[in-house]
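User:
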Amino acid sequence: MQALDHTANIYLAVSLSPSSLYLQNPSTLSSTHPSITHVGQVGQMADVQLFSIPRDEWDRAQIDILETLNSQQGISRVDVQTAKQRAKRGGDEL
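Assistant: Predicted structure:
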């Protein structure tokens, strides 16, 4: 998977139902809205796919994008991903 740029893009984790037709070819979900780009599978979970939307487009069309995705048959959940700073553990915390 490519490096994620949370400055330029918003990322959505889309969970697919077991009967979803998108499980065969999840990138076809990108055709439901012109701003959506398929990034790839989340880890080993074939039923969770990551999509990106340019941040400026998200600011303009967030409601439309979410409604479009949520209205697709076979999508069980759409989660907006937020970038979080990881904390480094010190040697004495273990």
